[in-house]
Amino acid sequence: MAAQKELCDAIVIGAGIQGCFTAYHLAKHRKRVILLEQFFLPHSRGSSHGQSRIIRRAYPEDFYTQMMDECYQIWAQLEHEAGTQLHRQTGLLLLGMKENPELKTIQATLSRQGVEHQCLSAEELKHRFPNVRLARGEVGILDKSGGVLYADKALRALQDAVRRLGGQVCDGEKAMEIKPGRPVTVKTTSRSYQAKSLIITAGPWTNRLLRPLGIELPLQTLRINVCYWREKVPGSYGVSQAFPCFLGLGLSPAPRHIYGLPSGEYPGLMKVCYHHGNSVDPEERDCPGAFSGVQDVQILGRFVRDHLPDLEPQPALLERCLYTNTPDEHFILDRHPKYDNIVIGAGFSGHGFKLSPVVGKILYELSMKLTPSHDLTPFRMSRFPGLGKAHL
């Protein structure tokens, strides 16, 4: 196995959206970067595929809302560089019971951070969105900056940009072994690379790479059913009808969030999904025996029937996606506790895509030993007990 002759500045393992943005920031700062991906691109085996994601400033936590300001700027910059539309503003409608504590917290955060939004009573919602049926006591908040990101186009634009800026994108190369040190060595299925720093953004495969390095993060891989529902009248929940993305907070019959995007990616079909799934081994995500998610689809069906009466209450199309969740659903952005030139980005918990421009920037900063541009306290791995140096 011939070694890479030239020492590069950084290797990024995992070409999902977080790894792509990390490589993009490295390449933009004229660092020699190699982006490794175990599958041939494009693929649908991880968390970053598919056509659409929600973008929003509406979060209960101030730090995410603050990060999103810069994210919007970088998304716009990438869109300009790529010369293709990557984002569409539709607004994001948050629905919940008037007394829902999360809804109240989000509204307070939006107010505090000066984000333009509108609180809508049941009557106002009924007038504005007549094809949304509300239960008694349900109200809404409209985050006007919310919208749709075109996920597959964004990934392609980033991979093209990394190559254009002089980086290498090596797909179909699975990382088999990491040898810590200065330089760090990564052996793949086809060759060996060396770099001053390593960034691991391997999604559900993160712990497989970290275990030989002495740590295991509290990550759970979930398989999510991505469901599309047929409109009874095509376009009735479409962008052309000014229908927004939505996020339902604790609405019956779902104990967890339900979210939806206006129809568009598949004509006449609206994407409505449950923000949860069941544990799965990422190597077995396509096995028929792996959880079918019938219960989640039934919950969604009841929600669609009760709240979105102009959709057929059975899914017309079902795709799959993986979430890699942390116990608190906040990300892990940190250095390895023993090897400070190995940086980890993990646990994006189904809400990391929109934040990836800033996540990639932070991972670049950590790998280059720069002062992080955001407070990383919420993202340190030390918040989980048993992961300190004593564990190594």
Overall description:
The protein has 392 residues and is an alpha+beta fold. The chain folds into two domains: 7-48 and 152-217 and 329-383, 3-Layer(bba) Sandwich (FAD/NAD(P)-binding domain), CATH 3.50.50.60; 98-144 and 220-325, D-Amino Acid Oxidase, Chain A, domain 2 (2-Layer Sandwich). It is built from eight helices and 20 strands. The protein has helices spanning 17-28, 62-82, 101-112, 122-128, 151-164, 206-210, 294-307, 356-367; strands at 8-13, 33-37, 52-55, 87-89, 92-97, 117-120, 138-143, 147-150, 168-171, 175-179, 184-188, 192-200, 220-231, 245-248, 258-261, 269-274, 278-279, 311-325, 332-335, 342-346. Strands 5, 6, 7, 13, 14, 15, 16, 17 and 18 form a nine-stranded mixed beta sheet that branches. Strands 1, 2, 9, 10, 11, 12, 19 and 20 form an eight-stranded mixed beta sheet that branches. Strands 3-8-4 form a three-stranded antiparallel beta sheet. A hairpin with a 4-residue loop joins strand 10 and strand 11 (184-188). Helix 1 (17-28) runs parallel beside helix 5 (151-164) and helix 2 (62-82) packs across helix 5 (151-164). It is globular. The two termini are 29 Å apart. Mean pLDDT is 92; it is low at 388-392. Belongs to the MSOX/MTOX family. GO terms for molecular function: flavin adenine dinucleotide binding; L-pipecolate oxidase activity; sarcosine oxidase activity. Keywords: FAD, Flavoprotein, Oxidoreductase. One of its GO terms (biological process) is L-lysine catabolic process to acetyl-CoA via L-pipecolate. This is SOX oxidase.
